[in-house]
Amino acid sequence: MLGGLFNTFLKLTNPTPRFTSERCLLTRYAVGGCSKCQDVCPHNAIDLSGNTVTISEVNCTGCGLCTQVCPSGALEFDIESTMHAIHKQQGREATLACSQLSTPHPTLKCLARVTPASLVAAGAWDKEVTLLHGDCASCPVGGPDVLRHLMDVVDMADQYREATGRPLKLTLQQGQNTSKENKGAIVSRRGIMGSLMGTAKQVVADLIPEQPLPFIDWSDPKERIPSDWIWRKKAMKPSPAPETEVFWVTPAVNDECNFCPVCMNVCPTEAIKREITPEGDFRIMLDVSSCTGCGACIPSCPQEAMFEQTHRPFHTLSEIVVLKEQARGPNWFEEPLEEEGTSTGQEDL
């Protein structure tokens, strides 16, 4: 029995998020890099040496703070289980609770696991969401920064929902913590044996079950898009009118662009493409739904030609748009090296 409980516990509480290196700004060598995940981690579980992300399974508590701040979706937990936990609650109200609380409500290991997509979806279902948190200042799972970052997520979800005419309805309140003896029972694998002898059985019963995330098939363009961004778009219901300006952060390009490939190379979802037609015309294209708004292209642009655009027409979320184009003409590759009328010295040969 203990062995079965141990295996179930490990399966449900495997703490580390999935890391997709192709989406990481550090791995993409974006100018300025990125260390947000390491900076926010309360347990020093993230190592960025070698231009990649390595997560310690020993130190990671699975709080989710790193996934909240990752600008490109390189770090992810399963979000559909959380969305299902909101949707299946009867009536107009839905509650999610922190795992450190004594509550009958569906429980997340930490409220830092709440993402914009889950709240945008709650608004689409017209749910009034209550998020119950514990004493974050002394919490061994997430720590004191959880509420600040959670409010950033709430503010972002509010912006996504604004154009739908159905605003997010959310209450954030503190619940009753578990006893000191039980507190931290699901923190990490460091204390797993002690947890199993104590309250782990109840923890396993109360936690929202997570689906293991499969490996990304990078050859499939659809899989390059992080699931949270996929659901942010899907959950923008009721659908705004096509020309309505909606919150969706993307880059824009000014006249300084010289069509170099840097923005394309650093884009973590390969949403930016450069096209050169047989006629010599240049275009910078953006697959809007694939863009996470991470901003890696902006500081990386050597011409400083890119800038952030926070809103765009709703219909463009399903389109590939032209950021910049320039017609060079059919003879662009055959232009003479010397200006017209200038001697090349060939006349004397």
TrEMBL record:
Pfam families assigned to the protein according to its UniProt record, in alphabetical order: Fer4_7
**GO MF annotations, alphabetized:** 4 iron, 4 sulfur cluster binding; metal ion binding
Gene3D superfamilies given in the database record? 3.30.70.20
Keywords of this entry:
4Fe-4S, Iron, Iron-sulfur, Metal-binding, Repeat
4Fe-4S ferredoxin-type domain: from which residue to which, for each copy?
Answer: 51-80, 249-277, 282-311
Return the protein name.
Answer: Polyferredoxin
From which organism does this entry originate?
Deinococcus cellulosilyticus (strain DSM 18568 / NBRC 106333 / KACC 11606 / 5516J-15)
